[in-house]
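Consider what follows.

. . .
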Amino acid sequence: MMKSIGIVETRGLAISIRIADAMLKAADIRILRQETIDLALVTIAIEGDTAAIQEAIAIGTQLAKAANQWIASSTILRPDIAVNGLVTEIAKKPST
């Protein structure tokens, strides 16, 4: 079964760690990658089944907005194999 993908972007490393923790505790997901750019912009990419991704992204978005640190959120439900491969390749790269 093809997994779904979710992404949450925030300002700040501390809130992104709190969001990752909350998403992992709330839903059966796996973090693919956390990308940090100068501790200002942090992107968390997750994968899991559709319901788990929707739940985790909703929680992550809510926390980021409550902290006024939300930039963007997105879900890709059952992505095309090419998109899934792109995200998988990005997840394999070392963090910057």
